[in-house]
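User: I'm putting together notes for a lab meeting next week and I want to include a structural view of one of the chains we've been expressing. I don't have a solved structure, so I'd like a prediction I can at least talk through. The sequence is below, exactly as it appears in our construct file.
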Amino acid sequence: MVKGLPLEYAADILIVDDTLANLQLLSTLLKEEGYKVRPASNGAMALQAVAAKKPDLILLDIKMPEMSGYEVCAALKNNPETKNIPVLFISALNDVADKIQAFNVGALDYINKPFQFEEVKARVATHLRLKAYEDDMEAQIVLGIREIEGLNQEIIDTQQELIFTMGQVCETRSHETGQHVKRVAEYSYLLAKLYGFEQLDLMKQAASMHDIGKVAIPDSILNKPGALTDEEWATMKTHSHLGYQMLSVSQRPLFKLAATITLEHHEKWDGTGYPYGIKGEEISVAGRITAVADVFDALGAMRCYKPSKSLEEILEIFQQERGRHFDPDMVTLFFDHLDDFIVIRNKYTTAE
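Assistant: Thanks for the context. Below is the predicted structure for the 352-residue chain, given as structure tokens.
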């Protein structure tokens, strides 16, 4: 038994030598140490034995007919399934060049013949112990990676929950529901996927923060039951830039994308939007996507300053605003996959 291995585990050792006397001597020696021993008299038999059951360690002669020990070791090390099996050469070849070649093909140790019994036992035990420690370390690393992945996912989940909560806080202040945030996020994700948007994995979270700047807008304006004055409307429009300022301080890809969406989701394809009046492809893809998602949801929701519109009315508006408010390609994708957008709307609908 070897320290570092399970108490009830007897290591499996493959001995490869074309001399029967050496096979018998080594087998007897190692069996007395409590190891399971399998003999092989040539290279081909050794590879067959390994293929049938991987040993814990291999004692390998060099000079054998047809296939040398070097060739056997090289074959084992070139196979991903067997490359980590410890190979100890045991040979009468004493030249430094022979030993160097042995290590070059992947051997971990080299024992000279005639060998000393105690030396063989000590080297075998040492390499089995090292392999056991290595395997245990690999297992611990795998376990650690899984724990890190679990913690990472927990952080991601917490981040997503916090982001949606931030979005919901803004909507609650303007007497809108958190479902609006979810719908806009889902619509944006779907449209981004249909468009082939590269930052697809970030889009859903980023879009949920599109109106984060509204936290800085007075309640008297957000919840005014009627048309805003020119001055009030000018204040309301500042929420885009305010949201951008809040989010752009971070260099993380998620918040950089969210900052862009916040700034540009009220821009229009024909240049009549705000805050900068940019047009066409000057508007980011993310801004154009979220514009469609936000307006589609807003038109169908009743607010303190307006009634809700029917689906037919909404679709008519989208047809009219193709190439004016909205990117024509986005509108085409929207109509081509309208049923999918309706599924999302129905899934996240509550009394508003």
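A couple of points you could mention at the meeting. The chain has two domains: 12-143, 174-347. DSSP finds 14 helices and five strands in the chain.

User: Perfect, that's what I needed.
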